[in-house]
Specification:
Radius of gyration of chain B: 24 Å
Strand content of chain A: under 5%
Number of strands of chain B: 2
Distance between the termini of chain A: 69 Å
Oligomer: heterodimer
Order of helices and strands of chain A: HHHHHH
Radius of gyration of chain A: 21 Å
Chain lengths: 172, 394
């Protein structure tokens, strides 16, 4: 077993275990904190895949947003989110069914893939992945349309949030 | 490379070959990396001891005092005395506190700052790891700092601590926006997100090409470290001590050390992004000189932070938010667009530098004019003396 495999196994265990803890904790803030651990584990997986940019963005976007999530957890629950609540709601049967179906489909698909145990070819040192990613995102034969559509959608969400949060004018 | 030109790499090579004598290749790499991590992290932690003394001394000069002057020459040993005091104090954990989060939070706050030092280019060829996404990494690591503040505030189970944490999140997340946008300006100018390339590209310091962006970076960084005038998250006169109200002994010491180190780190980052980093006469040949230049420039940035801290009063919370969202963020966005346009239009032309400089000045003047016009139009609430029914002499 190479060092990379050992790290991968360890990190996968950490992700799965903290994911399990996240959905079973009665305390919402604890759930959010375990979510941080799980998301950080995913960032480590990205590093193992030589995807430094994705790893950094994973930390920046997801772990950065957890703070906001925790604020909501504290503000929207009674008594500073210290009260123990039932962590499983009545729809868990459907969730269980759908997630096991999805897992089954994934296992079947990956099982049919011939090159599943092939090693990824090493990146040559001259190729600057970040530059290639950047040009692919904005070049017309790359991903410029999905990129722009996503930008417009985010802008719409931003404006929508502003409209909702805007104070009502007097007399209405 | 002789020893005097590059002592670190010469010693490093010697250690490598020494270890390779009796260990397999993978272990040598592992131990060598571990050693580098320990050195870079210890550098940050040790420099804090000096920084605390320096800041107390300089703050004292601003306030016409002497500052620490009893322990050792010029009070140099004062910080060691304080450390002994903090370590020997009783470690109190509130009974209803969330123990795990309460204990992790101070460690996380130090780690969040130390992680930045991994991508700091100390001198030519001296860098922890030259990530090709260095600038973005710095922003990402900052989110651990926010998390530690929130964990500390929530786990203390104290309403003042929680209020402090709420204020902290409002402030830190808001000021992260203009900071991230201005970080993109040096990236555009250097055409790279790697810290080393950023320094190597600064034949002309970026502060000349993007003075207003440098200013915005400095202001939003001061807000990120939560120092006066942005110290709402630990405003003594309002919410006791904010998020670290319940912390005692060395756990408080860790928040304290993290804040000082963060302030200096901001100075160093300012030096790298806008003041040419380690560059200076002779820094390419004698690399130790590069470290000296970087530290001097970093201390200059740190001095600005201290200067602002000793001069300005605390800003009100609604002013803090409007200043960010209605002034800094639009200004930063305009500057980013301007820099991108000018860089493309004047690419390779001799007019690039003057165009960027003039563009910056024009944007700054226009934004101040807009602020003037708007502030004249909006009616101000006049604060006057009101006769109150109670507590009046008969």
């Amino acid at each position: 077993m190479t060092a990379e495999q050992a790290i991968f196994l360890f990190i996968s265990f950490v992700i799965l275990f903290s994911g399990y803890l996240m959905v079973t904790r009665a305390n919402l803030v604890h759930s959010a904190l375990f979510l941080v651990v799980a998301l950080f584990g995913v960032a480590v997986i990205f590093v193992l895949l030589d995807a430094g940019f994705l790893a950094v963005v994973q930390v920046l976007v997801y772990i950065g947003a957890i703070a906001i999530l925790m604020i909501f957890a504290v503000m929207l629950t009674r008594g500073n989110a210290t009260e123990e609540q039932e962590s499983v709601n009545t729809g868990y049967g459907w969730a269980l069914l759908l997630s096991s179906l999805f897992a089954f489909a994934l296992i079947v698909m990956l099982g049919q893939w011939q090159e599943i145990d092939a090693l990824a070819p090493a990146l040559s040192a001259e190729r600057d992945t970040i530059v290639e990613l950047g040009t692919a995102l904005v070049s017309p034969d790359g991903y410029v349309i999905p990129f722009e559509v996503a930008s417009v959608m985010l802008l719409a969400a931003l404006i929508g949030a502003l409209v909702v949060a805007r104070p009502q004018k007097k007399g209405k | 490379m002789s020893f005097w030109q590059d002592p670190v790499n010469v010693i490093g090579e010697w250690i490598r070959s020494f270890l390779a004598g009796f260990l397999p290749e993978a272990w040598v790499t592992f131990l060598y990396t571990l050693l580098s991590v320990v050195i870079v992290a210890s550098f940050g932690l040790i420099i804090v001891i000096f920084l605390i003394w320096l800041e107390r001394k300089i703050a004292a000069r601003f306030q016409d005092r002497l500052g620490p002057n009893r322990a050792g020459p010029f009070g140099l040993l004062q910080t060691f005395a304080d450390m002994v005091k903090l370590v020997t104090k009783e470690d109190v954990i509130p009974e209803k506190a969330d123990r795990l989060a309460f204990n992790i939070a101070p460690i996380l706050s130090v780690v969040a700052v130390l992680l930045i030092w991994a991508v700091i280019p100390f001198a030519s060829g001296w860098i922890g790891t030259d990530l090709n996404v260095g600038v973005l990494y710095i922003a990402a690591v900052g989110s651990f700092g926010i998390l530690s503040v929130l964990m500390a505030g929530w786990s203390s189970n104290n309403k003042y601590a929680l209020l402090g944490a709420f204020r902290a999140v409002a402030q830190l997340i808001s000021y992260e926006v203009p900071m991230l946008i201005t970080l993109m300006v040096p990236v555009l100018l250097a055409r790279s997100m790697g810290m080393m390339e950023m320094v190597q590209d600064q034949d002309l310091w970026f502060i000349v090409l993007a003075p207003v962006s440098g200013l915005i970076f400095m202001v939003s960084s001061i807000a990120e470290i939560g120092r006066t005038p942005f110290d709402l998250l630990e405003a003594e006169s309002e919410i006791v001590a904010g998020y670290h109200t319940e912390y005692t002994g060395m756990k408080f010491g860790m928040f304290f050390a993290a804040e000082f180190l963060h302030a200096f780190t901001i100075g160093v980052l300012f030096a790298i992004l806008f003041l040419g980093g380690w560059r200076g006469p002779g820094a390419e040949e004698y690399r130790v000189l590069g470290v000296v230049y970087l530290m001097l420039k970093g201390l200059f940035g740190y001095f600005i932070v201290m200067w602002v801290r000793s001069t300005l009063p605390r800003i009100r919370i609604d002013h803090m938010l409007s200043f960010n969202w209605k002034f800094l963020t639009p200004l930063a966005l305009t500057l980013l667009i301007l820099t991108a346009l000018v860089e493309k239009i004047f690419e390779g032309s001799a007019w690039r530098v003057p165009a960027l400089l003039i563009g910056n000045v024009v944007v700054l003047v226009i934004s101040f004019l807009i602020v003037r016009v708007v502030s004249r139009r909006t009616a101000k609430e006049r604060v006057t003396f009101k006769k109150r029914p109670e507590a009046r002499p008969a």
